[in-house]
Amino acid sequence: MNKLIIYICFFFILANCSNKVTYSGKILNVDKLQNINFENKEKLISKLGYPSYIDPIENKFFYFSELSKKKSIRKKEIKYSYVFVFELDEYDQIINSKVYDIKDFQKVKFSEDKTSSEIVKRGLLEKIFGGVGTQQELPTTP
């Protein structure tokens, strides 16, 4: 039994010493990002592949890429973490592009906008049945 415990402890010590590289999102290298002429949607997809997320309302393509190295259980280092945003017009031409380095985001500002609490102020039956049975008077026209 003691040998088993020693073997298990030895295994965890050896497993903790290994380095692990983890990619999240798109795996982008420097060669892919240099000398690329992003003019339209077709060239963008041919060079970088399909995006991580597509915003259909604002017609934007989002590419996420992150590289992290884990040296031990407690020590994880993020080498880079980027979000590439490409805005397209109705003809699939790229009109705007931005790069966000999310590794360096330290402070996130929360919005002060609040949703009205009108539904909380109503009673239980009114919440369930809503406006059932209520009548509104229509204005009369002369």
Which short descriptors sum up this protein?
142 residues; alpha+beta; five-stranded antiparallel sheet; 5 helices; 26% helix; flat
Tell me the total number of β-strands: 5
Radius of gyration: 27 Å
Determine the mean pLDDT.
76
Q: Report the biggest beta sheet as strand number plus sense, adding barrel if it closes.
A: 5 strands, antiparallel
Structural class: alpha+beta
Distance between the termini: 98 Å
Instruction: Kindly estimate the percentage of residues that lie in beta strands according to DSSP.
Output: 25-35%
Word description of this protein:
The protein is an alpha+beta fold and 142 residues long. 26% of the residues lie in helices and 29% in strands. It is built from five helices and five strands, in the order H-E-H-H-E-E-E-E-H-H. The protein has helices spanning 2-16, 30-33, 41-48, 118-121, 124-129; strands spanning 20-25, 53-55, 60-70, 76-88, 94-101. Strands 1, 2, 3, 4 and 5 form a five-stranded antiparallel β-sheet that branches. Strand 4 (76-88) and strand 5 form a beta hairpin. The protein is flat and about 95 Å long. The N and C termini lie far apart (98 Å).
List the helices and strands and how they pair.
Layout (H helix, E strand, L loop, with lengths): L1 H15 L3 E6 L4 H4 L7 H8 L4 E3 L4 E11 L5 E13 L5 E8 L16 H4 L2 H6 L13
Antiparallel strand pairs: 1-3, 2-3, 3-4, 4-5
